[in-house]
Each structure stands twice: as structure tokens, then as C-alpha cells.
Amino acid sequence: NLVSINEAQSIANNLNASTEKPINDAELRAYFNSLDTNGDGRVSFEEFRAAAAAGTL
């Protein structure tokens, strides 16, 4: 299972509608890139799990 930056932006846009402090595109891209440790433009389940284990989610 992989998530692309476009999919992450779509999710963020949906979440932004219900939050007091929405995330902007630059913040989302920086966070996404920090999760995408192999630089392939997608976050795999393994990359997500590693971030969760490290407490960076």
C-alpha cells in the first residue's frame, strides 16, 4: 500500500475543513518528504510504520 503526495493532499484538504489550524501545502510536502525515506514520491506502509515506531507521526 502506497500513498502519493496527491493523495496526501486530498486527505489533508478533507481534514482541513474540520480543523482550527489547517496544514498548508508547504507543511504537508515537508512532512510527506520526511516520511518518504526512500524518495520515491510515495509513502509505503513500511515507511509509515517506521515513523510511527519512531514517534514522528
TrEMBL record:
<dbReference type="Pfam" id="PF13499">
    <property type="entry name" value="EF-hand_7"/>
</dbReference>
<protein>
    <recommendedName>
        <fullName>EF-hand domain-containing protein</fullName>
    </recommendedName>
</protein>
<keyword id="KW-0106">Calcium</keyword>
<feature type="domain" description="EF-hand">
    <location>
        <begin position="23"/>
        <end position="57"/>
    </location>
</feature>
<dbReference type="InterPro" id="IPR002048">
    <property type="entry name" value="EF_hand_dom"/>
</dbReference>
<dbReference type="GO" id="GO:0005509">
    <property type="term" value="F:calcium ion binding"/>
</dbReference>
<dbReference type="InterPro" id="IPR018247">
    <property type="entry name" value="EF_Hand_1_Ca_BS"/>
</dbReference>
<dbReference type="InterPro" id="IPR011992">
    <property type="entry name" value="EF-hand-dom_pair"/>
</dbReference>
